[in-house]
Write a structure and sequence with these properties.
It is built from 11 helices and 10 strands. With 384 residues, it is α/β, with parallel strands linked by helices.
């Protein structure tokens, strides 16, 4: 019950990767025939990825994952703006962003390179588009709002935010602010057509879609000005230097195409399991609170708040009972303090309850749900 942090690599994805780990190991920047053939394969994979996002192939930059993509989107656009206009840029992020977005923004502030505004949310966990407009300044270069929260599964109003930002640009006769979204948790289930979404920049991660770890991409509109952070040989359209890893690229592209093919089927299947799980928790554990619902979240996550308990103890007792889960984001699972998302939603009250994120995947079935409920019953005596 822990698929949101990372997913197993699909067998078909492994098969797509293997040739580039053995026979076709050449540097695609070479001039010899076998190298140029690999460069053509990269172009084909770039086209595959672009098609899934309804983008142009020159708008896809392969990266090591969403953390790198987020850093490039935030730091790169801020540096480009500062260099072009000589003005200290302003960036808006939400209070529920992934740590890679927060820390990239904090790095700019710590080095006196930009100003940051953090837009709050309430107990609903859904960001208000109007609050973003209220935070806007003339020098706002970027707004970054995640598509789906990685802890709660709550879906953010990306299209509504995009609509307001487009209107703001028209009113100010400016191309700014750009709109960036970390879509890591959305790709398995939601629409990722960047034209319909209205985003200028989008981050994606292979490890969340049954692809290899250390793989992903950044969609960046050709009109978006952004400085490269990794300099060198000028790979990835000059935006991300370093010898291309064909295996990671092939794995990411294959995983993306497969997950989009399975999107609707998996959404319905997992939503049925989500509804069953929530119903059983409400029936068997009336004191527990469910943060999300099938109406406002992706179908793979059930986020539970348990009064008077400690998250770390609950997770460890679940593990001893044979069920894997997390207290929130996988990358901060060892920190028992309330997460920034829980603090943003519930304030100091977040210190009075444990949080457990159960997340389902392609291998999850009804039996797993019932087994988890049984494990929760067995450990409940420790938290009465």
């Amino acid at each position: 019950m822990e698929y949101a942090a990372t997913t197993p690599v699909d067998r078909s994805v492994c098969r797509a990767m293997m040739p580039f780990l053995k026979e076709y190991f050449y540097n695609p920047a070479g001039l010899f025939n076998r190298a140029t053939k690999l460069a053509k394969k990269i172009a084909r994979y770039r086209e595959m990825v672009a098609n899934e996002f309804a983008a142009h192939r020159d708008e896809i930059i392969f990266t090591s994952g969403a953390s790198e993509s987020n850093a490039l989107a935030i730091i790169g656009t801020a540096l480009a703006y500062r260099c072009e206009f000589g003005i200290r840029p302003h960036i808006i992020i939400s209070a529920i962003e992934h740590s890679s977005v927060r820390e990239s923004a904090n790095l700019l502030v710590e080095n006196d390179l930009a100003d940051i505004s953090i837009v709050p949310t309430d107990e609903s966990g859904i960001l208000s588009p109007q609050k973003i407009l209220e935070s806007m300044r003339p020098e706002t270069v970027l707004v970054s709002v995640m598509y789906v929260n990685n802890e709660t599964g709550l879906i953010q109003p990306i299209r509504e935010i995009a609509k307001l930002l487009r209107k703001h640009r028209r009113n100010t006769s400016s191309v700014y602010p750009y709109f960036h979204s970390d879509a890591s948790q959305a790709i398995n289930f939601l629409d990722i057509n960047v034209l319909r979404m209205g985003v200028d920049i989008l981050s994606a991660d292979g490890s969340k879609i049954y692809g290899p770890k250390m793989s992903g991409c950044l969609f960046k509109k050709s009109s978006v000005k952004c400085q490269a952070l990794i300099r060198g040989g000028g790979q990835e359209l000059g935006m991300r230097s370093g010898t291309n890893s064909l295996a990671q690229i092939a794995g990411f592209a294959s995983a993306l195409c497969l997950t989009r093919k399975l999107c609707e089927t998996e959404f319905r299947r997992l939503q049925s399991l989500q509804e069953l799980f929530i119903a059983r928790i409400n029936k068997d554990f009336p004191k527990y609170k469910i943060t999300n619902s099938p109406e406002n979240s992706t179908p793979n996550i059930v986020h539970v708040r348990i009064p008077g308990a400690r998250s770390d103890e609950y997770i460890l007792r679940l593990d001893h009972a044979g069920v894997m889960a997390s207290a929130g984001a996988g990358c901060s699972a060892r920190d028992d303090a309330p997460s920034s998302t829980m603090m943003a939603m519930f304030g100091e009250e977040a210190k009075n309850f444990a949080t457990v994120r159960f997340s389902m995947g392609r291998q999850t079935n009804r039996r797993d749900i019932l087994r988890t409920i049984d494990a929760m019953r067995k450990i409940e005596k420790f938290f009465v």
